[in-house]
Amino acid sequence: MLPEAPGERAVLVQLDFGGEDVSERQEEMCLLTKSAGGIVCAEIGGKRQSPDARLYAGKGKVEEIAVAVRETSAELVIFNHELSPVQERNLERALACRVIDRTSLILDIFALRAQSAEGKLQVELAQLEHLATRLVRGWTHLERQRGGIGLRGPGETQLETDRRLLGNRVRLLKERIARLGRQRIVQRKARLKGDVLNVSLVGYTNAGKSTLFNALTHAGVFTADQLFATLDTTSRKIWIPDAGAIILSDTVGFIRDLPHALVAAFHATLEATAEADLLLHVVDGTSPARHAQVAEVEKVLAEIGAEAVPCVLVWNKADESGVSPAAETDGYGRIRRVKLSARTGKGLFLLRDVLGECAREKRALRERRPETPPETESADPGAG
Description:
Layout (H helix, E strand, L loop, with lengths): L8 E8 L5 H14 L3 E9 L11 H14 L3 E4 L5 H11 L2 E3 L1 H12 L3 H18 L23 H35 L4 E7 L5 H9 L16 E7 L3 E7 L9 H6 L1 H8 L3 E7 L5 H14 L7 E6 L1 H4 L4 E4 L5 E5 L8 H21 L5 H5 L6
Parallel strand pairs: 1-2, 1-3, 3-4, 5-7, 5-8, 8-9, 9-11
Antiparallel strand pairs: 6-7, 10-11
Helix pairs in contact: 1-4, 4-5, 5-6
């Protein structure tokens, strides 16, 4: 067997524009780079009032980055910020190596992790829509008129050709995703018809959602200490004594500054979250940025229309933080937070109690709701 190819050597850049969580962002950036298969050679920081219009980091800082690139033989520079196409092009010229921003890095990880046919289509769509912005001003070498033997054509510039081909591919992908989305809606409606409680796991990436999913369902879903280990939604049925069957779904993790192209591309997958009966918001209880992460997840939930779905906070990794498993209730006596360890299983019984209570409530509500007689549904609205 051939040895595995080493990852790309990268210099990371994180600038401080007056934020309070710069160190946490830097740590997250390192995890993202490693999740993409990169090797962190150097980390460059610095303070600025605002981004430089031409180089984002300013001339002096770019020279410092160039020195780090030469000294470490880095092949790539990653900015933990969103760069404009012009800034990206100018930086590549100044540093004589490839430069990408946070959005490109996250898109690359998604492309690496996607397993299902739909997941791959969604990631490709997001990548192409991101690339479309780079075709606007970034690649001036594509503006040359096509010419030469075999290339004399309708007078279309190479950039126009690229835009047209890219647009055709985007339309095709959207059609395929819409078709798969319609199939999923039919399947989801069939699930929602019965008394079965539908529960979705949500949370910041690497909070332990898939570990909790496996602990509850014994499904054997892939887990790893890396960002975006899970992309494709997985659903399993579990049985709770005195409550019956419950459908539990494991979903993609969220992250701060999640690219809008990804939210849009994965909207068909994420809409299942908005239609769930209950959300289990899994939180990494050991992370110093856990409160900020909770806020980021809530922001994305609002963006996909799931902010009104009942939610229980699951404070995970209690074994690492030294916290005893416990359940916390609100003013009405309802459990709103559960502290547990998905890895060791301690405190899982508390979560099962919550799921059982919600399942019984849904079944009781359905039994109390009067069903519409068939003749009423088919009656002529103008009769009488």
